[in-house]
Amino acid sequence: MQANPVVAERNRASDQLHSDIMSQAQRGMNEAEFRKAVKSIRERKEREKNAAAGGNGDNKKRPADPPPAVQTPPDRG
């Protein structure tokens, strides 16, 4: 007896499709984990930066200093 070549080809294609789906699903999970790790590292670095600058721990930037006052010469009129 011989196996049906059409069924064998269909099974091979189905197995390949299943393999591709599983590898892409694993890749997607790895990317999500990577993004989560990067986000947590950035948050930690921002907290450390704020602590080193004497900040209060929030992620808001310190307001800029106001520009120096410009003095005008008195009128000699």
Per-chain topology:
Layout (H helix, E strand, L loop, with lengths): L4 H48 L25
Number of helices: 1
C-alpha Rg, in Å?
Answer: 32 Å
Could you say which overall geometry the principal axes of the C-alpha atoms support?
rod-shaped
Unreliable spans: none
Q: Report the strand count.
A: 0
Q: Biggest sheet, open or closed, and with what strands and sense?
A: none
The helix/strand series, from N terminus to C terminus, equals H
Helix content: 55-70%
What fraction strand? under 5%
Oligomeric state: single chain
The overall pLDDT average reads 83
Helix and strand content put the structural class at mainly alpha
Q: How far from one another are the termini? A: 119 Å
Considering the chains and any ligands shown, give keywords for the structure.
mainly alpha, 77 residues, single chain
Description of the structure:
The protein is mainly α. It has a domain at 1-53. The protein contains one helix and no strands. The chain has one helix at 5-52. The chain is rod-shaped.
Brief description of this entry?
With 77 residues, this protein is mainly alpha-helical. It has one helix at residues 5-52.
